[in-house]
Amino acid sequence: MSGARRVTGRREERRTTGGAEYGVTVRRRPFRWRLWLVAIGVTSAGVLTLVAWPGSQSPVRPAAAHRAGGAVRHASEPVTAPVTPGAQQVSPPAPGTTPPPTFAVQTETIRLDDPARLTPARGVIPATQGRVLVTDLFVPSGAPGALPLVVFAHGWNSDPGVYAALLTRWAQAGFLVAAPVFPDSTDVYPGSPVSDYADQALDISFVITALLHSDTVLVDPTRIAVAGHSDGGTDVALLALDPAYADARVRAYLSLSGELPSGVAPYTASPVNASLLVAVGSADEYGLYPRATEVFDAAQVPAKVMVVEQGGDHLGSFVGATAAAAAMREETTTFLELALEPHPPTTAALVAALQDPAAPELSVVAPG
To answer: What CATH code is assigned to 2-82+102-365?
Structure first.
């Protein structure tokens, strides 16, 4: 799949007043898919620069255990989100029932600066001080009050645009979705992507903090979830398992095609007061089914559930155009809705809610 985009013309930029210590900048620009690669760098004066790079193929390929790749999109000016191929369509409600609200989705891009940590070298591109997190926001238009937040971590050699079908579905359900572009592992910057579970787990917490202090959006601090796919799913596992990276603000974890993190200091999994969903395809081409099961077994949480697509692959199980992929997106949405309710769900409640006779490809697994 082509990984590309470009910037055309002059675009509006405004700097927020809330959370100014996080360097939050909103950039608005039209949707562009698979056009030109934009490299983002920081000059010595700390100014964000945008440089057009010719687009190139960015295939999914393994490095270490597993990787994700795909088409590139970057966030745009707020407009009603287009219908994404493969996205679940909303069916008419059954007679006598009240369907949950479905919101139009607007998109924005914000820039978050963390000057305290390092961005590692990407092959021939040298390391730099500070981390710039260009973050796509998927905003449910018209959703009332403070919004529940889902911070999403993309996979290695990938970017948030690959997951538009999944992230748009969550926003349609009323969740504010924030998807940072990780400067280590993304496919949209020059150099070679590198895995960096520890810093990316810290990036997730940094995004939560920045959005809680920003006037760009209003976030409900009592309803925060983190999710990720592939290496991003491993970032989430690190947050859920390792007390050195635990974030008490998180009430729900979604680890999609993830595994136990490597390259971090040894740790003993500790209990966290949150719910966990692990999801994976049984035919994951990088062998993640048993490794995702290890994450599920290791987690010490009050409520957890695992969803397996029988015959499902690494990425298509979540963003594909199949009925099973659409059902998987609904399962993840249902989990978020239950996990962020005022009273946390039990494992039994999660299992009961996620069992769907209309989706025979999906198996729901309880602990033990």
So the answer is: 3.40.50.1820
